[in-house]
Amino acid sequence: MIKNIKKLIAFTLAETLIVMGAIGVVAALTIPNMSRDTGNVEKLQGLKNCMQNL
């Protein structure tokens, strides 16, 4: 009985690989957007500095 319970709780290698693949796809889609936003923040900060100097 205990062996059956342990077998039901564990994840298989295939399930783990599928989840890791899904996380990789989501990360690949979101990381470029995050870096693009960071560039906009840097440009905005530079513009603010220029306006303060004027």
Summarize, please.
Helix content is 91%, strand content 0%. The protein is an all-alpha fold and 54 residues long.
Please provide a written account of the structure.
The structure is a single chain. The chain has 54 residues and is mainly alpha-helical. 91% of the residues lie in helices and 0% in strands. The longest helix is centred in the middle third of the chain and has 41 residues, at 13-53. 0% of the residues are buried.
Supply database-style keywords:
single chain, 54 residues, mainly alpha
Question: In percent, how helical is the residue content?
Answer: over 70%
For this entry, what is the oligomeric state of its chains? single chain
User: How many extended strands?
Assistant: 0
Biggest beta sheet summary: none
Task: Show the helix and strand layout.
Blueprint: H1 2-9, H2 13-53
